[in-house]
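User: I'm writing a short methods note and want a consistent example. For Alpha-amylase, I'll paste the sequence; you return only the C-alpha cells, no commentary, since I'll be parsing the reply automatically.
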Amino acid sequence: MKKPILKLCLIMAFSALLYSCSENEINESDAKAESQKFKVIDVTHHDGKPFNTGVTSSSPTGKYVDNPGGGVMMQAFYWDVPSGGTWWNTVSSKVTAWGNAGIGSIWLPPASKAQNGAFSMGYDPTDYFDFGDYNQNGSIETRFGSKTELVNLITAAHNENIKVYADIVINHNSGGQSEANPFTGTNTWTNFTGVASGKFPRNYNDFYKNSYGNNDEGSFGGFPDLCHAAPNVQNWLWLRTDGVGKYYKNTMKFDGWRFDYVKGFGAWVVNSWNANVGGFSVGELWDSNVNVLNDWANAANSSVFDFACYYKMNDAFDGNNLALLNDDMMWKRNPYKAVTFVTNHDTDEIWSKMLAYSYILTHEGYPTIFYRDYEEWLDKNKLNNLIWIHNSKATGTTSILYSDNDEYVARRNGYNGNPGLVVYINNSDVWQERWIQTNWANTQIKDFTGNSSWYPTTQADKWVKIQCPPKGYSIWSINQ
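Assistant:
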C-alpha cells in the first residue's frame, strides 16, 4: 500500500507545483497588464543630441571632451564659505578629484572686490577688475583669495578638462562714494570714479533714475541700479575689448557666466553680452512658471535655471506624489536651455535629495551638484555613481513609463548607438516591482546603481520586470 500512497503524494505535489506556476504566470500577466494601462508619455521630441554648452576649450591642453550624456556642473561654493582668503585654494585642491568623477564645469562665486571686502560673498560688487590685488574696501584679497590664486584655480580646472563659469552681478553695485545727484535732488552712493583698478568708472549718469528713465525691470535691496541703456555701461560691461566680459573671458580665461538676478533687467542685456562676448551662460530667473523661464531663455539666448523642476521635485518627493513629475518643467519645454539643480546657495528645501539627484542626473538638461551636498552632506560614492551614469547612459529623448504617488519610471531612449536607460524611483517604505517596456528585445539588463541584484532579460516585446528599493532608485540599461 505504500507505493500507491507515495504515487498519490507525488501527483498531488506535482499538481500543486503546476497550479503554483500557473498562478504565478497569471499574477505576472496581471501585473504586466496593469502596467500596460498606463499611457506612456513621450516628453521630449528632438533628435536626441545631448546638452552642449557650446564652448570650445580655452585650455592650452585642449583636453575638453564631451561625453554621451552631456556635462555635469558643480556649484563650487555655498553661502558664507570660510573667510580668510583660502577658498580659491580649497577649490583648486578638489578639481582633480572632481574631474576624475566626471564633473565637466564649476561655477564660482562673484570673483571681484565687493563693498564688504574680505567678508563679502561678492554679490555687492564695487570694482569688477579687483580680483584681490588692490587695497580697497578694507582688504587686498577678496573673501576667496588673491588674483594669483584665482588664476591658478582656473588653470588647474582647465588642466582637468573642467570649464569655469563666473558669477556675474550686473544689476546693481555697492560701495560707491556719495555724490550730489541732479536726477534725484539728493545725494546718492553712485560715485565709482575712484575704483582702484581705474576701470569702469561710473557715476549717477550710469544708474537709475537718470536721463534714460526712472527705472528698469527691477532694483535689488536698495543698491544703486545699473542702467544698461547708458553707453558707458554697455561699453564697459560687454563692448570694449578691455571691458568686463572680454577681460574675464580672454584674460582671466572664464568659459561662461551665471547671471545673477536677471529679473532686474531686460533679457536683451544678456543677449547682447552673449553676442559680443560669447561663452556659456545661464540666468538666475527665480520663477516656477515655465512660460516665464522659456520666454526669457529665448529672448536672452541663454540657458536658465529650471526653478519649475526644482519646485516640482520638492512637491513630488517631499509631498509623496511622484505623479507631479509628469507636470511641465523647463527641461521638458526646452531641454537645451535648462539647467537643473537640487540645492543652491540661496535655497535648500528638498529633503529627499538623493531621489532628486537620481532624477536630474538621469533626465535631460544640464544638472548641477551643490558643493556641500557633494563634499559634506550626502554619500559621495552614490553621487559619483549617478554622475557616471549620467555621463555614460543618460542619452536621448525622454518617455515617462509609469507614475503614481509612490513610483515613477522613465526611459531615456538612447542616441547615436548609446542604448539609454530606465530609471525607477520609489518613494514608498517597501521594495516595489513593476513591468515596463524598454527599447531592448531579448536583452539582459542590470541595475547600474547596484541597488538591485537582478539581471532580468527583456521579452521579445521588450517588456521586463524590474525592482526598486524603498526610498530609493534603480537605473537599468543593457548589461555590457
